[in-house]
Amino acid sequence: MMPMMRPRKFGRFRPDGNFWTVPNALSMGRVLLVVPVVWLILVDGSLRWIFALFVVMIASDWLDGRIARWSGRVSDWGKILDPLTDKIAGVAIVLALVFRGMLPVWFLMVLIARDLFILLGSGMLAHRKGRMEMSDWSGKVAVGAVTVTVLAALMRADDPVMRFCLFATTGLLATSFVAYGARYARLMSRGEPPGEDAPGATSDAIREEPGSMD
């Protein structure tokens, strides 16, 4: 049996739970799937293979969360890995499309800036408050919009359709960024829950309300 990874404390945040779980393995597997997708985009490979890999990635994203909940194995590691994997996949695929001239550079910059600020905010919140917040609906919608824009680019959609996807997705990314900023400010200004400094108290704090790393 694989030994449980010993939690390492980052400021006041100490990830709980076993790192080596099926949901976490699915999250890491999605990162590996990004490699052939990016390669196929760069070499103008088969759209059937690209779409097939997309389906597998989307299915694994849905499945890892369901398995974690069904098995009661929701962990801090999963709350870090799942959104981080989505960000790595999104930026890598959009970068490949920018390199091919199928998406504009400014769209990539917007995506990178938004993801970096959210990651920094999540890290600051975890360090100071000892909690890792889960993603909310605005982040999920924004990620879904990025996926639609990527698919539109791969299918070489007409210019009006492409412009609509780009600007609509940018608006949703900005909306989710503002929503996360407001949530971070609210959580950072709150007083500490009783006993949050105690070892093991982090896990309870994490489950109090949905938050934001997606």
Q: Which keywords apply here?
A:
214 residues; mainly alpha; Four Helix Bundle (Hemerythrin (Met), subunit A); 70% helix; globular; disordered N terminus; disordered C terminus
Element layout with pairings:
Elements: H1 22-42, H2 47-71, H3 76-99, H4 105-129, H5 137-154, H6 159-189, H7 201-206
Order of helices and strands: HHHHHHH
CATH topology-level fold name: Four Helix Bundle (Hemerythrin (Met), subunit A)
The secondary structure category is mainly alpha
Tally of distinct domains: 1
Mean pLDDT: 77
Count of helices?
7
Given as residue ranges, the uncertain stretches (5+ residues, pLDDT < 50) are: 1-7, 9-13, 193-212
Query: How many β-strand stretches?
Result: 0
State the separation between the terminal residues, measured CA to CA: 31 Å
- CATH top level is Mainly Alpha
Radius of gyration over C-alpha positions, nearest whole angstrom: 18 Å
CATH architecture grouping: Up-down Bundle
What general outline do the C-alpha atoms trace? globular
Q: Hey, roughly how much beta strand do the residues contain?
A: under 5%
The CATH superfamily title:
CDP-alcohol phosphotransferase transmembrane (TM) domain
Profile the largest sheet. none
Helix content: over 70%
